Amino acid sequence: MSTPFYVSPQQAMADRAEYARKGIARGRSLVVLQYADGIVFVGENPSRALHKFSEIYDRIGFAAAGKYNEYENLRIGGVRYADLRGYTYDRDDVTARGLANVYAQTLGTIFSSAAEKPYEVELVVAEVGETPEGDQIYRLPHDGSIVDEHGSVAVGGNAEQISGFLDQRHRDGMSLAEALKLAVQALSRDTNGSEREIPAERLEVAVLDRTRPQQRKFKRIVGRQLSRLLEAEGAATEAESSDESEEE
Amino acid sequence: MEANNRGTGRLPAAFLTPGSSSFMDFLSDHQPELLPGKRQLPPVQGVVEAPHGTTIVAVTFPGGVVLAGDRRATMGNVIAQRDIEKVFPADEYSAVGIAGTAGLAVEMVKLFQLELEHFEKVEGAQLSLEGKANRLSTMIRSNLAMAMQGLAVVPLFAGYDVDRGKGRIFSYDVTGGRSEEHNYSATGSGSIFARGAMKKLFRDDLTEEQATTLVVQALYDAADDDSATGGPDVARRIYPIITVITEDGFRRLTEDEASELSRSVLQRRLEEPDGPKAALL
């Protein structure tokens, strides 16, 4: 009988983290940005039916990068958690912070349990507030940590480079078209710095719009509305580039 | 179990197990004691006294459907509440109005709304109107034990069928029996009078405005003859709740709109107490 090799806990955790990160890096990145009237989710997704973004509750949205079956499972768990909580107490008692905590505990337990393989997912849980100051965005990496984000966040394979790009250019109070334009610009940049075109049909866009009269603020932006916003984006780019040339 | 809905700790296995898109199914697996139908009933002598809601009416018109209810809740011969709401949106394209035991009815509506919303979020698509009507049927059936003790809930369900492009009405009995109604329907103690009024006033080519006027006339007639149904209360500014569901979705008439409609009906009734006359032949 052979005795198993000793693997130090540090090494075991590093291996698991490496495994999860590689899995996440195979998927495409996505970004979540604050804009004047809410929070916008933008990602490249050739599928019309398998979503990366979805509604969890009235003011809470969910975005995920990585392995579809794993984040879909977490998404449904989140919907069940939120609906049960809202049913037991009140709709106002369902918060992004509570949901993010539950996800963090879940991911953390799975990550550190030797019996399970770590989840290859990275999540964003966002809640739109009454005012931009009330917005909450939480990023949840594969290991169950929580990062409280402001302004903009990117998750997925190329996330570091994209968030670097966003950090420099994102500002408070952008219009939806401006934020969308910035998001698409960020997603179009390859690892080597060159840009490629992402056609509108390959974009998945959703918003949590605080100005929506309905109780449920989540809304997908598709078809004509999306192309109209992207066209407005074209105008904004021109305006901005002319501004830049003036400065020069 | 206890800790599971406190928001601490890992999501329990039941939350992450692939399964039904129904919230009620999830609850009955995970926390059945929260379902209204699963409650243990104490032995009771006679009928339980609880506030009752009364008349709900619905009428279709080309392009949609109108669902409305009076505002009175009674307990025996006492008016328990003058401004109760008995008509609720179920989702974007449907609404439910409830006659019967008010407390249970409101709880049932809450669970029904959640059921539809949960399905929509999990599946990424809405249930068909027929599917929604069937879901409501299941919920009433689960309340049968309480209905037998006099705590019955009898809803009227109306919605815009996006696939067929028209408004439809479904009525129920206490056992959950479901039937689709054509043109108009009513439920609750005043419903016989309301139905009579609607029978005489209904036409195939009503406009949305005429349809909303028609339901106010019907509710007025119900209140006229049924003591448990409240008419428009001008002094307290309490008017019927009137909702319209069309291709554009659910809309509840604002208080101003409901007030104007009720006042014009009242005004005419001062001249003709029995309301508009239908032709004899």
UniProtKB/TrEMBL annotation, chain B:
Stored InterPro entries: Ntn_hydrolases_N (IPR029055), Pept_T1A_subB (IPR000243), Proteasome_sua/b (IPR001353), Proteasome_suB-type (IPR023333), PSB_actinobac (IPR022483)
Pfam family name, one: Proteasome
The keyword Hydrolase is annotated on this UniProt entry: yes
Principal subcellular localization: cytoplasm
Enzyme class: hydrolase
Subcellular location as annotated: Cytoplasm
Keywords carried by this UniProt record: Autocatalytic cleavage, Cytoplasm, Hydrolase, Protease, Proteasome, Threonine protease, Zymogen
GO annotation, biological process: modification-dependent protein catabolic process; proteasomal protein catabolic process
GO MF annotations in UniProt: threonine-type endopeptidase activity
Keyword set includes Hydrolase: yes
GO cellular component terms attached to this protein's record: cytoplasm; proteasome core complex, beta-subunit complex
Pathway(s) per entry: Protein degradation; proteasomal Pup-dependent pathway
UniProt catalytic activity: Cleavage of peptide bonds with very broad specificity
Designated name of the protein: Proteasome subunit beta
Organism whose genome encodes this protein: Streptomyces collinus (strain DSM 40733 / Tue 365)
